[in-house]
Amino acid sequence: MNPLQQLLQTEDHILLDGAMGTILMGRGLEQGAPPESWNLIHPEQIQAVHQEYIEAGSRLILANAFGGSRQRLKLHKLDTQVVEINRAAGKIARAAAEAAPHKVIIGASIGPTGELFEPMGELTFEDAKSAFAEQAIGLSEGGVEIFWIETMSDLQEVKAAIAGIRSVCDLPIAATMTFDTNGHTMMGVSPLKALEELLALDLAAIGANCGNGPAEIEAVIKAMHEKSPETILVAKSNAGIPQLIKGELSYDGTPEIMALYAKRVRKLGARLIGGCCGNHPEHMRAMADALSGTAVISTTTTAIYDGLVTTNGNGNGNGRSTPKPARERKFRRKRN
Ligand SMILES: [Zn+2]
Predict the structure, then answer these.
(1) 18 CA to middle of ligand 1, Å?
(2) How confident is the model at residue 320 (pLDDT cuts 50, 70, 90)?
(3) Can you list the domains of the chain with their CATH numbers?
(4) What is the overall mean pLDDT for the chain?
């Protein structure tokens, strides 16, 4: 039995954590600098973030390794330290989980390489597989319990990540994709196509993360749960849509909005619920209260949320998202 199944035997749901990248930006990470570099230079800061999430109620935290592939680290001339950086990420998360008063599952975030596969780009399946294997070596040495492939838009890259991880260890794997382009991933994968392909890969959980906020994720969870009610589904929404205000990235999803989202995706069938970009410990605390039934959500928030869901055309698995300039998209996708 994997750690998710084990915890879900006694729990109705598992609260995941929130963002790492966007929180570090508020704590001095320079714009454009890789959050993973802090595993080596500021491990205490990373551990503090994990700890804040655990205190807020998160029962699964993700090691700070989203951009820890050699392709991503190469952009910062850190590609000779892939194993070291990922091992540190795993160790820091493990230390935080072990200091918790209750069981906290140690996940390992693995994001896209940022490169396109042949023939559109130059990435081959073998290159990608080998990069993910290298990352997985460090993370498994660091002591993670489950791999968490996320923010993916290309099924081939998900498969390369799974193959890479499985070539070096036998830990369980969860995978989520980002359906931010008219209800599909940027590479045109629909929620049901993702479900079908990922179900065949013997994963511990599947679902959706990042993107344009709660309404978009609701549509994905609804479609996946209706098709496969027994699958353990992950919902990890951004805190709404990012806006640049006075040069600072800000998200419009308040903790109360995210609390309502948590309740709604639980009802739609998700059992692993958390937040992606823009979600900080206060959002997770609000989600924890909402999921345990102790939160009171105002009618104003409910009205705002209903407006979001309506404009996103939720309910048909085909929600239309607000088009955004390419630059902003790229910027957003770098964070996690
Ligand atoms: Zn995100």
Answers:
(1) 9
(2) very low
(3) 3-334 (3.20.20.330)
(4) 92
